[in-house]
């Protein structure tokens, strides 16, 4: 039905597009989708404009460090040891402890644990989230190629384990700031797929009201979405200062890429953060290429976890969600205990090029990408772990895939039918002002108002 | 950086442009487009007017703007053994293809990539230049020049002055793609020339097309002052002209009168020149108004004489740029002209510029000072 709707609306667009204004077509589509929602039993409730966050991160399910380390024996052999047993799937393994890759450490006596526990529920949730991000990014790629999304667009596929792993290890009240490859974090910080896609298409229902686009997305405790390479890092240190000053035991996760790691602002921030012992986790998502230049050709030291010098550091396998989660937990504990900042390098990989103009194969080989895809894909890795340990069934995961596909399709529908923001929005939100401020226009006789 | 995208964007949005030049631009305008999408954000807002084929500089070949920049850099590397080119991704040709083939031709010790660090790039360039070599630095987008602002304003611009002429970095040229591109949004569309116009000691130059770009860029490189050379990125592929193959220079700080007229003087630079030329035709056809179109070319130090002479003749002045109106360079021109030509003015000087907003994402078509807004300004001035 949903497919049919898409076809019909596309056709309508095609037929009426030349004569009817954008508004009319959009309204038509909204009307149509409402109609479908009412009449079709399979249609989902996606028309609401409320935020529909993904399932909350399993903060409560987090086991204390000691317990994690001790839980080395097979959890199945000790029934009752875990509370997280799904009733209807009693024959599945409710929880497992996995060996994870050892982190390289810098100025630390001890690193994160070498084993991590994964409950079935966590596993399913991580799978769902990462798969949603993947689907969403592939859809964005498609919409870009159809020229529905315009401008600058940086896709996150390949790096999903970073966003999910970090989110699983911090509290929703902790703070997070990243650069322009922001779609994944926007989703893990609680923004619905449809709001992200609608932002990409520049529609009113987008997470930044259609005014930001790909690089500028925000949510509570998520500070974007920043377009200038490295410029968000000092902001992150500032957020951490606010946390420290307010004494609320919160911290700030400050993300940047391997390219940004060569910007001077980082080192200014490192110094301030270490000097004042700010609760800040600096995370370098090292996806091996800063735009079209490989890390070896851009950085005198590619040991990004050591580049804080006097700040302790960790190098983490960023393709394994459990590694990321455990390392981030470790880093968060480090920060919360008042020891000051910590630097983490997540070794990851982006499947797409740097941005949509970059086919991504002029500075690396197709074989290299294929090898990462086949050997260390974060989603496949998790899936494999769950399936081979009887923590989920193939059918079940397939069902999740189908549901995600549907969600993304519906979000696309929303993102292409939602109206564009009204022209008044051009001048709004320049300053905080009341009463409205007059905005000087292209010429003296056009007056526009700005409100915030 | 994040914006390697622009390469694709320019090519992707108007695929026909590079083949058939400006003529097809009009066909992409909303009224005759067969596009079905509700947004038409990437229809160009101007028609490119190619310059006549220059005859005084020897044989010419067909080039677009980025090729003419490459050609200028090629001439420089060939004739000046101390010249080096560096910037983000320039080794493989740069995101806008301005340095294609130069590394292979002149070696990776002369054309090389830097890390992503604009402040470092410019500071490094000042060092290279002060030691006597010719430094040509590329900032990937004019929007990214701000991290380097301190180095440009405090180091480059003041070097000669503060050392009593013992040292200077006149051999430094900074190139950066500039201006709107159709869908560049906040950080890939800005026109920051006015920031630098407030800074004695540097020169700021913006060409309107391939022939000018090559001549002016070679002048900037030869000039014994640090120069910022902004290249209108929307023209990289859209502008195609017959460009001389050999090296030639076009003098800096000299505005060019592109079209003589008697009723109104129109001053612009970069992409906006092409809007102005179209407006001049419209004004002639619809209002019988004769417009004098002037390309300022060098923003700092600017050619006061040519502009004032023209205003004395026409009595009216319209200035247009993409940057926001408040504090834009039009303000400086306007102020100077009213001081010099007060008694010659028939109407208040008019500025048609960008809004005082950040460069908008989907509202770009409304933000741009397009031909209709300029045309309206002319009507007002004539009927004043």
Automatic annotation (TrEMBL), chain A:
Enzymatic reactions: N(6)-[(R)-lipoyl]-L-lysyl-[protein] + pyruvate + H(+) = N(6)-[(R)-S(8)-acetyldihydrolipoyl]-L-lysyl-[protein] + CO2
GO CC aspect terms: mitochondrial matrix
Matching InterPro entries: DH_E1, PDH_E1_Alpha_Subunit, Pyrv_DH_E1_asu_subgrp-y, THDP-binding
Keyword Oxidoreductase: yes
The UniProt record lists the keyword Oxidoreductase: yes
Annotated ranges, domain Dehydrogenase E1 component: 128-422
Superkingdom field: Eukaryota
Keywords: Carbohydrate metabolism, Glucose metabolism, Magnesium, Metal-binding, Mitochondrion, Oxidoreductase, Phosphoprotein, Pyruvate, Thiamine pyrophosphate, Transit peptide
Subcellular location: Mitochondrion matrix
Enzyme Commission number(s) from the entry: 1.2.4.1
One of the GO biological process terms: pyruvate decarboxylation to acetyl-CoA
Enzyme class: oxidoreductase
Cofactor(s) listed: thiamine diphosphate; Mg(2+)
A GO molecular-function annotation: metal ion binding
Role this protein plays: The pyruvate dehydrogenase complex catalyzes the overall conversion of pyruvate to acetyl-CoA and CO(2), and thereby links the glycolytic pathway to the tricarboxylic cycle.
PANTHER family according to UniProt: PYRUVATE DEHYDROGENASE E1 COMPONENT SUBUNIT ALPHA, PYRUVATE DEHYDROGENASE E1 COMPONENT, ALPHA SUBUNIT BACTERIAL AND ORGANELLAR
Protein name as it appears in the record: Pyruvate dehydrogenase E1 component subunit alpha
Natural source organism: Scomber scombrus
Automatic annotation (TrEMBL), chain B:
Domain of life where this protein originates: Eukaryota
SMART domains in the record: Transket_pyr
Catalytic reactions of this protein: N(6)-[(R)-lipoyl]-L-lysyl-[protein] + 3-methyl-2-oxobutanoate + H(+) = N(6)-[(R)-S(8)-2-methylpropanoyldihydrolipoyl]-L-lysyl-[protein] + CO2
GO MF: branched-chain 2-oxo acid dehydrogenase activity
Ranges where the Transketolase-like pyrimidine-binding domain occurs: 63-238
Matches recorded under InterPro entries: THDP-binding, Transketo_C/PFOR_II, Transketolase-like_Pyr-bd, Transketolase_C
Subcellular location: Mitochondrion matrix
Main location: mitochondrion
GO terms, biological process: branched-chain amino acid catabolic process; response to nutrient
Keywords recorded for this protein, A-Z: Mitochondrion, Oxidoreductase, Transit peptide
First and last residue of the signal peptide: none
GO CC terms: mitochondrial matrix
EC number per UniProt: 1.2.4.4
General function of this protein: Together with BCKDHA forms the heterotetrameric E1 subunit of the mitochondrial branched-chain alpha-ketoacid dehydrogenase (BCKD) complex. The BCKD complex catalyzes the multi-step oxidative decarboxylation of alpha-ketoacids derived from the branched-chain amino-acids valine, leucine and isoleucine producing CO2 and acyl-CoA which is subsequently utilized to produce energy. The E1 subunit catalyzes the first step with the decarboxylation of the alpha-ketoacid forming an enzyme-product intermediate.
Quaternary state and interactors: Heterotetramer of 2 alpha/BCKDHA and 2 beta chains/BCKDHB that forms the branched-chain alpha-keto acid decarboxylase (E1) component of the BCKD complex. The branched-chain alpha-ketoacid dehydrogenase is a large complex composed of three major building blocks E1, E2 and E3. It is organized around E2, a 24-meric cubic core composed of DBT, to which are associated 6 to 12 copies of E1, and approximately 6 copies of the dehydrogenase E3, a DLD dimer.
Name this protein carries in UniProt: 2-oxoisovalerate dehydrogenase subunit beta, mitochondrial
């Amino acid at each position: 039905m949903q497919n049919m709707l898409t076809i019909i609306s596309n056709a309508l667009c095609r037929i009426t597009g030349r004569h009817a204004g954008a508004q009319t077509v959009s309204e038509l589509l909204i009307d149509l989708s409402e109609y479908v929602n009412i009449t079709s039993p399979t249609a989902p409730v996606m028309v609401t404009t409320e935020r529909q966050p993904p399932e909350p991160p399993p903060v409560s399910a987090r086991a204390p460090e000691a317990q994690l380390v001790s839980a080395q024996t097979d959890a199945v052999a000790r029934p009752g040891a875990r509370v997280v047993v799904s009733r209807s799937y009693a024959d599945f393994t409710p929880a497992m402890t996995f060996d994870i890759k050892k982190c390289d450490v810098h100025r630390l006596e001890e690193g994160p644990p070498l084993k991590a526990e994964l409950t079935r529920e966590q596993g399913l949730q991580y799978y769902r989230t990462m798969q949603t991000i993947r689907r969403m990014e592939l859809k964005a790629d498609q919409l870009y190629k159809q020229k529905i999304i315009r401008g600058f667009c940086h896709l996150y596929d390949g790096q999903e384990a970073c966003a999910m792993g970090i989110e699983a290890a911090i509290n929703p009240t902790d703070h997070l700031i990243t650069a322009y490859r922001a779609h994944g974090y926007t989703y893990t910080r609680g923004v619905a797929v449809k709001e992200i896609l609608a932002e990409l298409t520049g529609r009113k229902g987008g997470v930044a009201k259609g005014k930001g686009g790909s690089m500028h997305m925000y949510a509570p405790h998520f500070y974007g979405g920043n377009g200038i390479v490295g410029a968000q890092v000092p902001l992150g240190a500032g957020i951490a200062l606010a946390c420290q000053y307010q004494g609320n035991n919160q911290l700030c996760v400050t993300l940047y890429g391997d390219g940004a790691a060569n910007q001077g602002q980082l080192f200014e921030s490192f110094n301030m953060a270490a000097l004042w012992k700010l609760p800040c986790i600096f995370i370098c998502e090292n996806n091996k290429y800063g735009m079209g230049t490989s890390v070896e050709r851009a950085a005198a030291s590619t040991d990004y976890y050591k580049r804080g010098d006097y700040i302790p550091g960790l190098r983490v396998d960023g393709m394994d969600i459990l590694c990321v989660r455990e390392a981030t937990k470790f880093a968060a504990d480090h920060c919360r205990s008042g020891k000051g900042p910590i630097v983490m390098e997540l070794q990851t990989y982006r499947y797409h090029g740097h941005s949509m103009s970059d086919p991504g194969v002029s500075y690396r080989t197709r074989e290299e990408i294929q090898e990462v895809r086949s050997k260390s894909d974060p989603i496949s890795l998790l899936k494999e772990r769950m399936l081979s340990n009887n923590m989920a069934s193939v059918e079940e995961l397939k069902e999740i895939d189908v549901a995600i596909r549907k969600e993304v399709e519906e979000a696309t529908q929303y993102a292409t039918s939602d109206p564009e923001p009204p022209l008044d929005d051009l001048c709004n939100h320049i300053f905080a002002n009341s009463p409205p401020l007059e905005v000087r226009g292209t010429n003296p006789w056009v007056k526009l108002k700005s409100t915030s | 950086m994040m914006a390697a995208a622009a390469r694709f964007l320019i090519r992707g949005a108007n695929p026909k442009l590079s083949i058939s030049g400006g003529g097809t631009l009009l066909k992409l305008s909303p009224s005759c487009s067969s596009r079905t999408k509700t947004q038409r954000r990437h229809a160009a807002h101007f028609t490119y007017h190619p310059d006549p084929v220059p005859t005084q500089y020897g044989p010419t070949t067909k080039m677009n703007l980025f090729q003419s920049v490459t050609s200028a850099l090629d001439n420089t590397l060939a004739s000046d053994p101390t010249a080096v080119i560096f910037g983000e991704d320039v080794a493989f040709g740069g995101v806008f293809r301005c340095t294609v083939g130069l590394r292979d031709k002149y070696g990776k010790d002369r054309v090389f990539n830097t890390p992503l660090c604009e402040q470092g790039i410019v500071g490094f360039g000042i060092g290279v230049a002060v030691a006597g070599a010719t430094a040509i630095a590329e900032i990937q987008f004019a929007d990214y020049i701000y991290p380097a602002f301190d180095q440009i304003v405090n180091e480059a611009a003041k070097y000669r002055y503060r050392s009593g002429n013992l040292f200077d970095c006149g051999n430094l040229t900074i190139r950066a793609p500039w201006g709107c591109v159709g869908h560049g949004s906040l950080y890939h569309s800005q026109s920051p020339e006015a920031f630098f116009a407030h800074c004695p000691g540097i020169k700021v130059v913006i060409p309107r097309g391939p022939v000018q770009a090559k001549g002016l860029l070679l002048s900037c490189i030869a000039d014994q002052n640090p120069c910022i050379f902004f290249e209108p990125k929307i023209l990289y592929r859209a502008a195609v002209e017959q460009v001389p193959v050999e090296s030639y220079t076009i003098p800096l700080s000299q505005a060019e009168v592109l079209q003589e007229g008697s009723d109104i003087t129109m001053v612009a630079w970069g992409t906006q020149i092409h809007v102005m030329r179209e407006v001049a035709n419209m004004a002639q056809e619809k209002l019988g108004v004769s417009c004098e179109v002037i390309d300022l070319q060098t923003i700092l130090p600017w050619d006061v004489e040519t502009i004032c002479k023209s205003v004395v003749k026409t009595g009216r002045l319209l200035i247009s740029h993409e940057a926001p109106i408040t504090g834009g360079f039009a303000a400086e021109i306007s102020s100077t002209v009213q001081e010099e030509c007060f008694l010659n003015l028939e109407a208040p000087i008019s500025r048609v510029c960008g809004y005082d907003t950040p460069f908008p994402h989907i509202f770009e078509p409304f933000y741009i000072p397009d031909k209709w807004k300029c045309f309206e300004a002319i009507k007002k001035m004539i009927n004043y």
